[in-house]
Design brief:
- Helix content is about 35%, strand content about 20%.
- The chain is of the alpha/beta class.
- The strands form three sheets. It has a six-stranded mixed beta sheet.
- A hairpin with a 5-residue loop joins strand 12 and strand 13.
Length: about 350
């Protein structure tokens, strides 16, 4: 991807507004121009591919769809941002072909898919470093512990922990304004499980949205704000946000970055995934899109601000896709289990 295209793509991600956008469609017209004479192109396909789910994974899938459009101008790819939970509701009801997920499918969703006879192929695509952010005018918070995050976000904090100095005594007596993903978000599930000890276990009195751009705007506009979302959204808005370093309890403050995810030191790193409905997987347009996704996931995930897997991991992802291996790798594992180890399971 050239620099101009990358900047254009990132501007598109940064500019999404939740108030007016429920989904982003990447499409082409029926009268698309023919390839230039002498240029070899892939066999032209047609049809539609419906994708929904995680707003965290959205920038990667959007980037893949944008590039795929250059090769397949007659395939309409629509990418929604209903949140991981909202997307799985559609996916397990047979409404969409591909599901973006910022956490693995859970037991309730597996049962819902099974009840409708929906088989799926689970494909990891990149790593995320979930970022905890504050307003740049916040001069007091730099490193925060998991225990302090729990003080701010646990259910018992609702209506009780309302000031920064209740999170840590040397913070100022200033209102604590919280911004976080909504309950349909996989990021909400991951954060609450990692910080509070149980998925969806959270205080409810915070500003919530499944659109991470709304959270970015909230934190950027309030000196006393604290929020969390995927690394790509922080990096795209780093000039108007400050990411806190995270101490998991060992006294070491670690910043969210590709390097700290790759070396295993960042406490809030996680895999990002897509799920492909097996009944759709052999449609030529879907197969071509997923092939293209896996082939380009490393470069495009890095372009939009996430962390690529090692090459050998993408090789294992390709093997899983080629074998059309149905089901989840996480039946007896957690989201912290190394991806390579999960993919190597028989």
């Amino acid at each position: 991807m050239n620099l101009t295209r990358m900047k254009t793509l990132r501007s598109m991600v940064a500019g999404l507004a939740a108030a007016s956008l429920a989904a982003f469609a990447i499409a082409c017209s029926d009268d698309a121009s023919e390839p230039e004479p002498g240029v070899t192109s892939a066999p032209q396909l047609s049809g539609s591919i419906l994708i929904d789910g995680s707003s965290t994974v959205f920038p990667i899938t959007e980037a893949v769809a944008e590039e795929f459009r250059e090769e397949q101008r007659n395939v309409r790819v629509t990418v929604g941002i209903a949140g991981t939970g909202g997307g799985f509701q559609k996916f397990c009801n047979g409404e969409i072909a591909i599901q973006d997920a910022s956490r693995p499918i859970n037991a309730t969703e597996r049962e819902a898919c099974a009840a409708k006879g929906i088989e799926y192929i689970e494909l990891p695509v990149a790593y995320d470093a979930l970022s905890v952010v504050v307003n740049p005018q916040n001069t007091w918070a730099t490193c925060i512990t998991i225990a302090e995050l729990k003080k701010a976000w646990e259910p018992a904090a609702q209506g009780n922990v309302t000031n920064w100095n209740q999170v840590k005594s040397d913070y100022p007596n200033a209102d604590l304004k919280l911004f976080g993903p909504g309950t349909d978000s996989g990021t909400f599930d991951y954060f609450t499980e990692r910080v509070n000890g149980k998925a969806k276990d959270s205080r409810g009195d915070f500003t919530a949205s499944e659109d991470d751009n709304v959270l970015v705007q909230g934190v950027a506009g309030d000196r006393n704000a604290l929020g969390y979302f995927g690394l790509a959204y922080y990096l795209e808005n780093a000039s108007r946000l400050k990411a806190l370093t995270i101490d998991s309890g060992n006294g070491t403050c670690v910043a969210p970055s590709a390097a700290t995810v790759e070396n295993g030191t960042y406490p809030l790193s996680r895999p990002l995934l897509i799920y492909v409905r097996k009944a759709e997987a052999q449609k030529p347009e879907v197969k071509a899109f997923v092939d293209f996704y896996i082939e380009n996931a490393a470069a495009l995930s890095a372009d939009v601000g996430y962390v690529k897997f090692p090459d050998q991991v993408y090789g294992l992802v390709q093997q899983r896709w080629t074998a059309q291996k149905a089901g989840s790798m996480y039946l007896n594992a957690s989201s912290t289990t190394p991806i390579g180890q999960l993919l190597a399971q028989p």
